[in-house]
Amino acid sequence: IAAITAFFFRLDDLLHLVSIVTLLVHSVMAFCVLIVRYQPERKKGENEVQMQETGGNQTQGQEETAPAAEKLTLQGLFFPGGPTPTPLSGWVVYVCSSLLVLLLTLLCLVLVHWSSLLSGDPVPITVVVLLLVLITGITGVIWRQPQSCTPLPFKVPCVPLLPLLSIFVNVLLMMQMSAATWATLGVWMLIGFVIYFTYGIQH
User: Fold this and answer.
1) Which residues are in coiled coils (predicted)?
2) Is residue 107 part of a domain?
């Protein structure tokens, strides 16, 4: 496969493809670090213990130990109810992180492709300021959510700032790639999705 690829593509094209794939992978990793840090801890063997305590009646045990349904409020976004992550706080971080990736991508598009930005044109400057305000506000919501206290041998410091900075730099570099590189990435991603959904997901 490597030999056939090298035969049909120029070296510059292959280097650009490797670069954009590496940047994409690192962006996805930073996004996953951001998501996982704020998810509630899942305890193994919880269902088995409930079944033993209730004599096999798993449904009854789950109903007795089920927490009260949480409600999403504006105050709860900035002042969560407890120091430990909950399913609601994990969902809030997931949605906010997805919005941040979208806003960071738009910001990078403006910074790279809007040539009048440095000329003092008020329109692109206003767009950049608005995007920065939205990014700062959503980052504040994520920062206020409780983080997981699960002991790990290594944790990324300065969450959520460091993962977001990593995503921003990676996407900014990706936006400077040529259209041909993006088209090649799209073809390879399509091939990868076909292989995954027809074979990999079942194995």
Assistant:
1) none
2) yes
pLDDT tens digits, one per residue of 57-100: 544 444 444 445 677 777 777 788 778 898 999 999 999 999 99
- Round the CA-based radius of gyration of the chain to a whole number and report it: 22
CA distances from 191 to 2, 25, 28, 99, 101 (A): 15, 17, 19, 27, 24
pTM over 0.70: yes
- Structural domain containing residue 119: 1-37+87-147+158-178
Q: Please, are residues 99 and 164 in contact by the beta-carbon 8 Å criterion? A: no
Distances (CA, A) of 152 to 8, 28, 37, 132, 156: 45, 20, 11, 33, 10
| Structure tokens given for 106 | 């738009």
> Which is nearest to 168 in space by CA: 83, 97, 94, 101?
101
Helices (H), 38-160: 46-53, 58-65, 74-78, 87-113, 122-144
DSSP 9: S
**DSSP character for 160?**
T
- Can you tell me which residue has the tokens 């493809």? 17
